[in-house]
UniProtKB/TrEMBL annotation:
Lineage: Bacteria, Pseudomonadati, Pseudomonadota, Alphaproteobacteria, Sphingomonadales
Name of this chain's protein: PhnB protein
Family annotation (InterPro entries): Glyas_Bleomycin-R_OHBP_Dase, Glyas_Fos-R_dOase_dom, VOC_core
Signal sequence, renumbered to the chain: none
Ranges where the VOC domain occurs: 12-135
PANTHER family per the UniProt record, alphabetical: BNAUNNG04460D PROTEIN-RELATED, VOC DOMAIN-CONTAINING PROTEIN
Length: 138
């Protein structure tokens, strides 16, 4: 069981590295596009500029993120990787519209899919791909 004061204690939690010192912008975007809530205030690095750790909750799940710290890993994070973050939601059309209205671009138009979901994909301004789905209403 998750403790909202301590963060996720089980399961799998995506942890994104945002390039270009734009983690603060990413947090604001995720709040607007996906209704993210801050589970804690972001921790700043010693330089007082970059976010070392941020923890958000989106649609009941957890998302962690940080600015890039190439001095700790030797290379910058990729702008867009082979990972897609999936949101299973109550109304895919509404979530899709909110995300594109906030500035996400359409990667796959939303539509009825053979597996029974209303589904589409968007790319956020930070290069991350998000899929959004909900059961097809009959």
């Amino acid at each position: 069981m998750d403790n909202p004061d301590q963060g996720p204690t089980a399961g799998l939690t995506p942890h994104l590295t945002i390039t270009g010192n734009r983690a603060k912008d990413a947090i604001a975007f995720y709040e607007k596009a996906f209704g993210a809530e801050r589970a804690m205030d972001p921790y700043l690095a010693d330089d007082g500029k970059r976010i070392m750790h941020a923890h958000l909750k989106i649609n009941g799940g957890h998302l962690m993120l940080n600015d890039d710290f190439p001095e700790y890993r030797g290379s910058a994070a990729p702008e867009a990787g082979p990972v897609t973050l999936h949101l299973q939601v109550d109304d895919a059309d509404a979530w899709f519209a909110r995300a594109t209205g906030a500035g996400a671009t359409v990667a796959m138009p939303i539509g009825d899919q053979f597996w029974g979901d209303r589904y589409g994909q968007v790319t956020d301004p930070f290069g991350q791909t998000w899929s959004i789905g909900s059961p097809i209403r009959k």
